[in-house]
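Could you please consider the sequence and fold following this short note?
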Amino acid sequence: MGWGSAATAPETSGEPPVSVVIPHGGMRAHLALVLAALAAQRYPASRLQVVVVACPAAEDPGRPLPAPEGLAHLEWRRFRRPGFAPAGARNVGIRAAEGDLIVSLDDDMVAPPGLVAAHAARHAAGPVATFGLRRFIRAPGDLLPGPDVHARLAALPDLEGSASNRPGAVRDWRTADAPVVAAHPHPYHLFHGCNLSYGRDLARAVGGWCEQFDGAWGYEDVEFGARLHAAGAVITWVPEALALHLEGPAGGAAPPRLRRGRNLRLVTARVPGYGEFRHRASGGHAADDQDPVAREAALRE
């Protein structure tokens, strides 16, 4: 019997099979915490597949981490394209996915026990593409994985700032917009690849993630969300899917946002009206509304 078959699922289970796709290009210790949290999900183990796509930048990408107890279906894929390529890595995961739904997580996002179930539940009413928000924390270097890993990390204080958030913000910058996403002129503006879900077949039908964005930072998720939205998926916030974003070691260099302006120009060329929206949202600037340094760099490129 294959993965997700009726013979392996609980008799009372009506939950759809889910594949969690994780591009891995960061710290191995962070990924171990992420996998431990997925092993503790309140979701039938027989209906949950995890696909880790190991990129060249990962620590020891050729040596898979063992599956923690409770995670019955962990698969490891190699992605050998050099450089920063999240879209390509996610497409590898989509091709390997056996679940009807895909949950997209980054390798530094620790899920609460109900995250997978909360994302999956929103798909029962019709085609949606869902997103969750983040808290930004720093995990102690000696923290060991375990079934209570999310609870231990959730007790830590929020960081004063994160390179993955707007400068000066403590909470996820999308917090104010998420409850009213249905009225947003471009709801995929809030669609961040670190914590998403979408239908596997719909993702394949729209062509998957656009790999033209690879080699530079950002906006591949916004563009993908725009195509899902155009194909009929309602962009939906899942409040229960609040994950913990693990920052790197204190004093470490922030990950570079390589050629961010290039990808901003690419997404605004592809998504009608999005450039005008960003122009207004950034107070009349032609480039990025989140990061003044990136804005200046974008104008130079």
The chain has a mean pLDDT of 87. Residues 259-301 form one domain. The chain has two domains: 18-254, 259-301. The CA atoms of residues 23 and 89 lie 6 Å apart.
